Amino acid sequence: MSQHDEGHPPSCDTCELSLDRRRFLQGIGFASLAVLAGLGVPRRAAAAMTPLPTRARRIGGNPTYPIPAQDGVQIDRDQEVILVRWQGAIYAYNLSCPHQRTALRWNQGNGQFQCPKHHSKYRPDGTFVSGRATRGMDRFSLTRSGNEVVVDVGAMHKEDQDQSGWDAAVLHV
């Protein structure tokens, strides 16, 4: 006899419609472009306001992304890469905060990245602003291949240990 037959509601664990919290929140975030458009916000402005889901392809072992057409943030949780176009430059960051490795979040309201654990804040260029961290976001080396950006996930630069590598980990567009 199943739990449902015994007078208990069926378990949500086996329901085909159940979503984990992360998938639910991602779905809401990705749907927000349609909501903003319905409110009369121009599509271009809405796109700049909302992190985009990213589909990376790979060259060798490295994720490759189309060069962003405008300033904005793309978060690729699967590859643990944040891709940013900001003021004529492209940066790729490790998704984790350099303080205690918690996944960083983009706060569109103040145009900064923030760690949800200890509230460290960073500018779009990865520069440390405030909080418990002691350095900027960890940058990956980048190369351009036609209209794509190749992120070298094996070459991560920590600002306090490799300042010249950190400064060089940028593409100008």
Describe it.
The structure is a single chain. The chain has 173 residues and is an alpha+beta fold. The protein has 2 domains: 1-50, no CATH class; 52-172, Rieske [2Fe-2S] iron-sulphur domain (Rieske Iron-sulfur Protein, 3-layer Sandwich), CATH 2.102.10. It is 18% helix and 33% strand. The chain has helices spanning 21-38, 43-49, 163-168, and strands at 52-53, 57-59, 62-66, 72-76, 81-86, 89-94, 105-107, 112-114, 121-122, 128-130, 139-145, 148-157, 171-172. The strands form 3 sheets. Strands 1-4-5-6-13 form a 5-stranded mixed β-sheet. Mean pLDDT is 77; it is low at 1-54.
Describe the secondary-structure layout.
Blueprint: H1 21-38, H2 43-49, E1 52-53, E2 57-59, E3 62-66, E4 72-76, E5 81-86, E6 89-94, E7 105-107, E8 112-114, E9 121-122, E10 128-130, E11 139-145, E12 148-157, H3 163-168, E13 171-172
Parallel strand pairs: 1-4
Antiparallel strand pairs: 2-3, 3-12, 4-5, 5-6, 6-13, 7-8, 8-9, 9-10, 11-12
